[in-house]
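Pasting as-is:
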Amino acid sequence: MKRFTLIALAAMLIVTMAAGAALADSYNVTANFGIRVTEQGTSERVGAITLQGATAADLFEAGPPEQAIVGELLGGATISRTFAASYDYGGTLIEEWTPTAGDRYGDATLAADYYVVAIAGQDFFSIQINVDSVADETVVLGHDDASALCFNIAGTQYTASDPNRQLVLVSYADNLFNTYSGDIYVATVKARSIAFDLCGKALPYDIITVSGLGQGEDCGIGFGEECIFRFTDNASGALNGPYRFVIGKTTGAKAGVGFEAIYIEKLEAGSWVNINGLGVAATVTNRRNRLGEADLTMDPAETSEITVTSTLTGPGSYRIVAAYEYDTCVPITPGVWTIDIFANLIPCGSSFSAIDWDAMEFFDPAGTPMAAVFPYAAATAGGAWFNGLVFTNPLSTPVTIDVQIVEADGDMYIGQVTVPGNEMVVGTVADVVNPVLAPSHTDAEFGDESYAIYAGSESGAFYGFLFIGNGTMAQGYLPILTSGGHMLP
């Protein structure tokens, strides 16, 4: 008896499910997966999508309940651009707005036939049906900038090197148990072509004073302007059009240093040319601090992440020059200023990125070795030429500088000078450093050959200048500086 009851119940369920399936509608999905997106791109625009009833009887329904269609991103991809837009059937735009994760309805115009919502960071987009359709009417999205579907495929399975993982996938479902068939692909992955480089052979650096380690009376604002990275793409048609750059980071950002402005330059005929015009910065559209708070009026030293827009002018090499500001009253900590870089065509596409990019190095001169090299000074024996030397101490505490002098024939001299706080010493090389012959060396006379000067300090930062003259003409130059230790022979 029990067995009979179970069999009967199973039969009833099968009949019920079959009846339910018969009531479900079917829809065809057509997508443009010929659109090519950049491998590991952080904000890539995928192809337009069209949904249509499989037969004249398969219609979109306003309910109740209202039909809600979800497109689920597969393979680890997420939405990279937040938008909401309402449309009439066929894709005629009625209204667009910016939704939030907690309010996906926003200002939806109920007179529109349907609306589309996507939230950055989520792995799905949604379509809400507001008005019943008639035969052959279509739901279209991604066909215009208002509903541009932008995917973050960085760190996902999608790759240009494996034919089985070159197509970006989306699946479809709704709350009425309808069926969806057709294209599940929305884009084809292409190889990355944009290369990142340092601006020079080494990181640029800046100095924070010893008073910046506390709330001393001498702490305050410092300024600088440096190239922080270069990028190149020689692909035909690439890097052309309005671009958005998000530079910096919020979580984990370096305290006390931030962006004032961003300048974008392009290499033209061997020279770097500002693409916005001489001295014109890229347009700032957002500033965020280390807490993620946004405010366009934020002080530069607090702007740990800056968003700018500018129109790139086609393939080639570009560099990003940052005008930055640091506040030693925070206090700023010594070390590398590490940033994230995200760039994409507006609203999305042709994107590229770099995570934890070493942009600048700050160091505390009271605790970091510093060195300077003057690679050439003239021979002074006989009195035809003289070499003048200046050391300047930017700190409020004394700095002791050790010097090694190496003549062209290999003879070596050593010397030392202490520069009082916020002062300078100036004179001939012999007067400033009092050179004496190094142990195990012999020489007839100091300065009988041209020589190089290697200066280093363990006690703080210093600046220098060497000038060479003979009474009727003179020239001078700044030394080669490093924060990484002594540059000795």
